[in-house]
Amino acid sequence: MTDLALSAMAPLPLLMAALPFLGRSGRRPVALRRLAEGAAVAAMAGAAGGGVQLLFAGPQTMHLGTVALLRLDPVSATMALLVAFVGWVVVRYARRYLDGEAREGAFHGLTLAAVAAVLVLVQAASLPVMIAALVAMGLILRQLLLFYPERAEARRAAAKFIRVWGAGDLALIAATVLLWQGMGTVDLAALNRAATLPASAQVAIGLLVLAAALKCAAFPVHGWLTEVMEAPTPVSALLHAGIINSGGVMLIALAGLVQASPGAMAALVMVGGFTALFGALVMLTQSAVKTALAWSTVAQMGFMLLQCGLGLWPLALLHIVAHSLYKAHAFLSSGGAVRAVNAIRKPGPVAVPGVGAVLRSFGLALLLYGVVAAGFTLFIGEKSAQALALGAILIFGVSYLIAQGLADAAPGALTWRTMTASIAAALAYFGFQVLAQALWGPALPAAPAPGALEWALIVLAILSFALVAFAQALFPLWAHHPATAGLRVHLANGLYLNALLDRLIGGFRSPARS
Questions:
Q1: CA distance 77 to 395
Q2: Count of domains in the chain?
Q3: If DSSP states are collapsed to H, E and C, what string results for 165-197?
Q4: Any bridge partners for residue 71, and if so which?
Q5: Residue 261 contacts residue 208 (beta carbons within 8 Å)
Q6: Which of 79, 2, 496 is nearest to 253 (CA)?
Q7: Helix axes 74-97, 233-241, angle to 10 degrees
Q8: 312-362: per-residue pLDDT in tens?
Q9: Which residue range(s) make up the domain with 66?
Q10: Is 167 exposed, middle or buried (0-12, 13-18, 19+ CB in 10 A)?
Q11: Are the beta carbons of 109 and 21 closer than 8 angstroms?
Q12: Residue 509 placed within a domain
């Protein structure tokens, strides 16, 4: 065994601390609860130590004989620190949240084991290690989703999850076999450096994309992700802030290999873009806080897949980091969300923009974006076409803000706040893009030059997101139309795709208690 990185040791204290909890499922004394939090702190210290080690010693790979086990590079170091931090927050929160539960001990043990499995995944240096981590994560999460096994909804969500997750595992295993047969290696570094790819490798890349889409709960197998609310809130935070990113982590770890297949990249753009649009539309119709957050995750994972398909790997990694931190906070603070919103000082009544205001807002937002993009290009360097297109998609959300401020009934304070937020959003996009490129760009492939297919997909994505943003801005004007009311009901139910999946797996038959 060589090149032992400190971050590679991070899962060990979690696994060691999980054993006393998993032995017996009853309530645990305060000392063992503190042990769980201490193990999470130790894992976070190991991840941080790995980052320091990377700065002074450079990238490393830990081997067992000729098999690559774990790696230390800018991508893995970032993800290990993120996972350890979110794991510590979830464990600390769960100490109070689960206090008094009959199966409190089992919950802490499963949570620690889940965080350990995710730490192994984000540092995996070969496909077999990645597969082992993903299988372990699926089995552990299934038990967490069944924390209240007497609830039929929890059993149904767990049944759908394990089928979708297991299908992703099978796709990844098949891809691994094909890559081993065609290229003679399953090491991530060797696969990413491959100069030529046999036909079997092209098929394997397609299977990798399929596995990533299944792991990220992409359309149309997203239904299980919106039903995990039957598990305790810390499970939702751990899932939406960590485990659901597995598909993106896998794609980024194999970025050089995946980018060698234009067809796979195009598939990511189409699947990711449609999932993002669909999830965002359904999210707007939800009335429950946690359900809206779940649909938000569906949309965000779709957008992350879109970024991967455009070859914007550093931005996709930045998206994972930002979304994980935001979504962990959102779920753990969801109990006081209504109270927090009501306490916000509002500058005036909600302004309803007309068609003219919305058109002006789109023009102003694109003009603002163009000015900021030109400034960054002049002083920092030229941006790729994919990065500019992604920024245009993001700026449509800014145009929605500007539309509120330009409405005829909008108070001056609202107009000022929306304009300030819009400028800040444009500056933040390019600023964080520069930061992401500096941190992870050298370790990831550059975005490819777009061809005819890529340009067609970019234009289609921009027009699709623009249409949705335009419709959202005008929604108050046609929200009370009878046709709109019916559409809202259908969207609120996710166009009933989840019900179809339930019927396929027999979820409506209330399976026996696990």
A1: 31
A2: 3
A3: HHHHHHHHHHHHHHHHHHHCCCEHHHHHHCCCC
A4: 61
A5: no
A6: 79
A7: 170
A8: 999 999 999 998 988 888 888 776 665 665 666 554 455 566 777 777 777
A9: 1-125
A10: middle
A11: yes
A12: no
